Amino acid sequence: MTVQDSYSGLLDSEKALTSAQDHKGDAFPDTCRERVCSDDPRRSTIKIVVLMGSPRKGNTFRACEEFREHLQRMCPAEFEYVWLKDAHIVPCSGCFVCFPRGENKCPHRGDDIHVIERKMLDADGVIFATPVYSWNVSGLVKTFIDRISYTGHRPRFFGTQAFFLATTGMMGAGDVLKYMKKVAWAWGFECAGTAGLITPNGVVPRYRAGINTKLLQEGAKKFSARLLRTTPRSPGIMDVVLFHGGRGAISQLETLSPADYRYWKSRGWFSRDMHYFTDVPVNPLYRAIGRIVELIAMRHVRKDVKLLTAKADDCCPQVSGEGV
Questions:
Q1: Does 130 reside within a domain?
Q2: Domain that holds residue 69
């Protein structure tokens, strides 16, 4: 299997292949994908994309390479590294345009975000890899997350498996893994394992290297099992709550956040026959709880919308036609 260690102009060449019509207007491109599980666990090569959040080929990269070796012994996986340090990603400017109007209206939409997003959509699995910097992900990863945060409102990575890897000199890996899992979960990923490795600067002690290897082996085994699974996963209670809470809120935002509203409507998620983002069996109890959450969300958002509308009317009163 071939491992791509650097871009070598990849993003520039792929941008030329991206149709301009994918990023214009209010229409949504093919960004929501329900992955169909194969009937043959020995299917053709599995595509893995590694979002590399380290600015150098150090401990995090070496851990990913060891993980790749373990995984490729278990399934036919082909790795592609996306080095965020080499990608052209403009930091979010906080204009709030992407949520109500759509990501195609982002003032920085000409950078590499859409190219990377397409790679993630086309992959069977995505590995989020980062060193721990100040008890958090690296700045490269945080910038990427901020720029693609609209995906939390308009999730799309359903059926795609995600693995999370963090390296730290001493502490913080657990907090970083928890954060990345929560973000990816909101985007639609299935969280298929984590590995938090302690990798002190300099030479890693032999006993610590042994522990890290065991964690990577166990993680690869779990990730492989998820990648080779032939039946769709039924959502858990928090998955169902996320869906119903989102539906309750966004169903009230047709005017204030039309991009979110149109996205959900175009996928049929407002239909009462839908109990989750994808057509999978849902536990009846979870459905009932989700419905309660949905009604609460609808009530609160409807109230907020009325207050915002009233405030806008007070600030900009309509001009009477008398005397004109």
A1: yes
A2: 10-18+25-227
